[in-house]
Design brief:
11 helices; two-stranded antiparallel sheet; eight-stranded mixed β-sheet; alpha+beta; 18% strand
């Protein structure tokens, strides 16, 4: 198994690192969050110009034809500076579903995503489902040449800024994915910020009428498209978490070298060295599982879902542990809003709950 990144992949990482270090400062991130927009339009357009929005799309869809490895690189670097732009919701979740479907408007929507003009969000979570989304309570029924959608969706990432929603419904006793425009009559939403600086929305559909042409997929195809998108998204947020863990470890080591106690840097104290070594080991273990999972996803192995679950479990448990150690070693500064360390902990807690927590993926892995 070749564990070396190609020259093109190394160049991609260096380009992302350069952007993150020079443009995506902590102050700029705070400014974006306080604006309430959920992202910076100039940065989003820059993502488009750099080709990042077209990374995972097939070449015949106008994309670059990259895969899970390149996405993992992107998200790992994004995690180091806690990028809040809605790449996950628009490109990974919605984009993957569209790119793998035979939907008539597929090319039009993907082109809008690649140019940065359109935002799409996947609405599949419903209240009180406990990570089981196999039987949506949101219903769709035929009425002449149209279908009528009724129901509610929760935790719709970037829902307040999306132009279109890909909605999971029950149609004729089968699971279906349908496209609903944000401005459609009967669509209402409530946007709110999340603890990690992202934005989400609660959606309600009341007698929303759409044409039969807006059905993206139905039955087994709809389930397959959703499963593939969620598996890839889980891989991406796990890579993002590893970026957070790496930054936690490196920033903690640097901080302890500069903080003096009893006339010497606290990094000289053996008990603190042991704790930082533990942080490093936990991070490297997660990186090893990331390599396995992303390579299996890239080659479409039968065991890819199991490997992603193993990765998500390890990230969910180790990630919070590493961030908690980092916060404690920073002392009171670790919980202040003025330092990134506390924000890494918030991000890792939020990621653990996204797409199934550690307990859920441990159970899924053992099945």
């Amino acid at each position: 198994m070749n564990l070396n990144f190609s020259d093109e992949q190394q160049m991609l990482r260096e380009l992302i690192q350069k952007f993150c270090e020079s443009d995506y400062t902590f102050e700029k991130r705070e400014e974006i969050i306080k604006s309430g927009e959920g992202f910076n339009k100039d940065f989003w357009q820059q993502f488009s110009e750099l080709g990042w929005l077209s990374l995972p799309f097939k070449e015949d869809s106008g994309g670059l034809g990259c895969g899970p490895v390149e996405l993992s690189i992107l998200f790992e670097e994004f995690g180091k500076v806690l990028v809040v732009e809605p790449y996950l919701s628009t490109v990974v979740l919605s984009g993957t579903i569209l790119d793998n479907s035979s939907f008539a408007r597929r090319m039009e929507l993907i082109e809008g995503i690649i140019t940065g003009e359109k935002h799409l969000s996947l609405a599949y979570i419903e209240p009180n489902q406990n990570f089981d989304h196999s039987a949506p309570q949101t219903t769709a029924s035929h009425q002449g040449n149209n279908i009528i959608v009724n129901g509610k969706k929760s935790l719709v990432l970037n829902g307040g800024r999306a132009n279109h929603f890909i909605v999971m419904v029950t149609l004729d006793d089968e699971t279906a994915l349908v496209l609903i425009d944000k401005d459609q009559t009967g669509v209402s939403l409530n946007q709110y910020p999340t603890v990690d600086g992202q934005t989400c929305a609660e959606l309600e559909f009341e007698n929303v009428s759409i044409s039969n042409d807006e059905i993206i997929a139905i039955g087994d195809e709809a389930k397959r498209l959703l499963t593939e998108a969620l598996n890839l998204a889980t891989l991406c947020v796990s890579a993002e978490s590893i970026g957070c863990m790496t930054a936690c470890y490196l920033q903690t080591v640097e901080y302890t070298k500069g903080r003096q106690q009893f006339g010497q840097p606290i990094s000289n104290f053996q008990v603190l060295q042991h704790r930082m070594v533990d942080m490093f080991i936990e991070t490297e273990m997660c990186k090893s599982l990331l390599f396995k999972a992303m390579l299996e996803c890239d080659s479409d192995e039968d065991t890819k879902a199991q490997s992603v679950s193993a990765l998500k479990y390890q990230v969910g448990t180790a990630g919070k542990s590493v961030a908690q150690q980092a916060v404690q070693l920073h002392g009171g500064m670790g919980v202040s809003e003025e330092m990134l360390i506390g924000h890494y902990l918030k991000k890792l807690v939020a990621v653990d709950a996204l797409f199934g927590n550690a307990d859920y993926h441990l159970h899924k892995f053992s099945k």
